[in-house]
Structure formats: C-alpha cells, structure tokens
C-alpha cells in the first residue's frame, strides 16, 4: 500500500487545517454508487489479534453488583460495588490492578462498552460506580449483560480475570430482591474474543457545523463540517512496543479518494496528539441526515497500514438517501455527538469516544 500521507509536522500548541471542496450535490450523486455499500473486512490478520490476554491467569474470586431499570430515564443502571479474592497478575507481590467492563450482547458495538476506573494494587477492589445504558426496556429484554474483570498493567495491556453474564430476557424486573447487591462467582471465558471486543483506545475530537459560507462565496444554502482530531488515548500495540499512528477521514457515502483526508503520522506513543482540523464543504441541511463521518486510526509500518479502530459519527439510521447501508451504524455516543453538532451550529462540540471495530467501505477511484 503506497503511503501518500502529508509530511508536515505540528506541535501540541498548533493545529493543521485541510479543506475538501465538493459540489453540493456530490453526496447525493454518490448515493447510488455501488462502491459505498460494498463492504469488506480489513486485513484478515486484524481479526486474530488480541489486545487482551486470555487464559494466562487463573479465574477466581467474585464480583458484587446490582442492576435496575429506571423507567423515568429509560436507562439501565449497573451498580458495580466490589470484587474479592481476584487472581494475582503480579504473582510476586500478590496483587492486580483490576477494573470492570460491561457490554450489552449480542451487539457489543451498538451500545458501546462501559468501564469502571482501575483500582491499583489489590485483589479486593472497591468501585461503587454506576454504569448507565440509555436503552428502551423492550430492546433490553432481548439482551444479555456481560461484566468482565481485567487487570491493566503499566503498559496498558489487559489480562482477563473472569466474567459474569446475565440473561435479561428472563430477568424479573419487578422483583425487589433483584435490585439488591449480590455476589456472583467469576467464570472463565468460553471462547477467545477478538480485538473488537477489547480495548482499542479512544479518540478526543470536536465537531462543528458552519451553515453560513465564508464571506464572498455564493450558495448560502450549504455549509461546512469541521472535524478537529485532537488526540487518541490508549491505542493498542499490535507490534510489540512500536506504534506510528495516523487518522484517516471519509465522509460516507462518498468513498472516492477525493473525500479522504489524513493527519500526519505520530510515532512512539500510544497517546498521539494530532491537533488536525479537516473541513468538508457543500453540506446542505438535508445532507446532515444522510451522511456519516468515518474516522479510522491506522498503524503505519513500512509499506502497510494496519487498522487499529474507528468511529462512525452520524444519525445511525441504517439508511442513506433512501438506501439501506451497513455503515450507518453509529453507537449511541456517536449519535449524541452528531445530534449536538447539528443542533448547535457555529459551536465546537467536544467528545471522547471509544474506538471500535469497523468494516471499512471500499475506496472507489
């Protein structure tokens, strides 16, 4: 894969600006292009890489938590109280640095993962944290809740310490006993989970919609979307301790190379600072409902780029310009950012979002 990234540099205090010009109709015209719905998975090797360490530590101990559905908020609350007698990741000092992570299954990506803070140097961590999911109760009754406990070492690597799974379809929400804190024994993972289920890191970014064009321009009916990629946090290391990451942006359904912009690559850190702003013009108000900002993070090594994780920021409706598309699959957090941007023109809206596995739309020539 040839590398056509910019060779410019930027310090933390400065940021770069790239601008993408397009006619206002280009988004709509591309809605019938076969390239945009043809999805292919990224290199097969990605799926076999684990950022978590499974099976190296014995699974023991238990976790105390409670769940409740708050009808007034339409939210599932998972109260994670504490764990006890966990396995020791540091065998010499007999301690771990554990944290708890939750998912709603089967669609891990849609609702996103939630996690507690890491409690250091203990086998009996106390959290007392509430993890919240905004979800309709009828949908919740089709889900399973997965809680897993992980040790995070100083290099941000994760080791699996055990998990518990609750089937919410058979859960009695009216039973008051079910709202009480209970202890559950931690269990082994039945099958290894690919990187998509583990930590891919996060991206700190800000979006802004500028409806009025720059002075002197015509076409007042269109506007610009500004995407400020600030930094990434806790990126996974796929090549030992080496990492040389950059961020690529495409505005779907336009998968043409013209639509693609990139940051420079930042090496030797899992927390790269990019401070790079990308501008896409030609957005009519109706395009904001149909388009989706796809941001992907890559590790550049020699002549290849390996996918680390990505975001798809849009309304997540599953459709674009009347066509059903796989890529309109934004998580609730990604949708929330896009909604805020649309509702607050000329204002930077900032968020830190978890990176996830994506099936990447093929780039059309």
UniProtKB/TrEMBL annotation:
Alphabetical keyword list: Cell membrane, Exocytosis, Membrane, Repeat
Subcellular location as annotated: Cell membrane
SMART domains tied to this protein: C2 (SM00239)
Primary residence: membrane
Lineage top rank: taxon: Eukaryota
Chain ranges of the C2 domain: 59-184, 199-328
Protein's recorded name: Synaptotagmin-like protein 2
Organism, scientific name: Bos taurus
Gene that encodes the chain: SYTL2
């Amino acid at each position: 894969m040839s590398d056509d990234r910019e060779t410019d540099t930027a310090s933390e205090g400065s940021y770069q600006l790239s601008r993408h010009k397009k006619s206002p109709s280009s988004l709509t015209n591309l809605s019938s292009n076969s390239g945009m719905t043809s999805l292919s998975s990224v290199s097969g090797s990605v799926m076999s890489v684990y950022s978590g360490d499974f099976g190296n530590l014995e699974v023991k101990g238990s976790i105390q938590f409670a769940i409740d559905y708050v009808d007034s908020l339409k939210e599932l609350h998972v109260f994670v109280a504490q764990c006890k007698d966990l396995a020791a990741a540091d065998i010499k000092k007999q301690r771990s640095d554990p944290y708890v992570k939750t998912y709603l299954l089967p669609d891990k990506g849609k609702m996103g993962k939630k996690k507690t803070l890491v409690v250091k140097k203990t086998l009996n961590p106390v959290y007392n944290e509430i993890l919240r999911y905004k979800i309709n109760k009828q949908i919740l009754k089709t889900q399973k809740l997965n809680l897993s406990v992980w040790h995070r070492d100083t290099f941000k690597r994760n080791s699996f310490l055990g998990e518990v799974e609750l089937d919410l379809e058979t859960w009695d929400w009216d039973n008051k006993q079910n709202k009480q804190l209970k202890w559950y024994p931690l269990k082994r993972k039945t099958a290894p989970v690919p990187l998509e289920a583990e930590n891919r890191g996060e991206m700190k970014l800000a979006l802004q919609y500028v409806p009025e064009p720059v002075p002197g321009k015509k076409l007042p009916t269109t506007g610009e979307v500004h995407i400020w990629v600030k930094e990434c946090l806790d990126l996974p290391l796929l090549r030992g301790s080496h990492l040389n990451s950059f961020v690529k942006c495409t505005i779907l359904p336009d998968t043409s190379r013209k639509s693609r912009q990139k940051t420079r690559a930042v090496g030797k850190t899992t927390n790269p600072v990019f401070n790079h702003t990308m501008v896409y013009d030609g957005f009519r108000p109706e395009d904001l409902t149909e388009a989706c900002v796809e941001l992907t993070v890559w590790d550049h090594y020699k002549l290849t780029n390996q996918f680390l994780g990505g975001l798809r920021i849009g309304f997540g409706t599953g459709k674009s310009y009347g066509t059903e598309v796989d890529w309109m699959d934004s998580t609730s957090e990604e949708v929330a950012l896009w909604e805020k941007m649309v509702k607050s023109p000329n204002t930077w809206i900032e968020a830190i979002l978890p990176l996830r596995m994506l099936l990447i739309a093929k780039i059309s020539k």
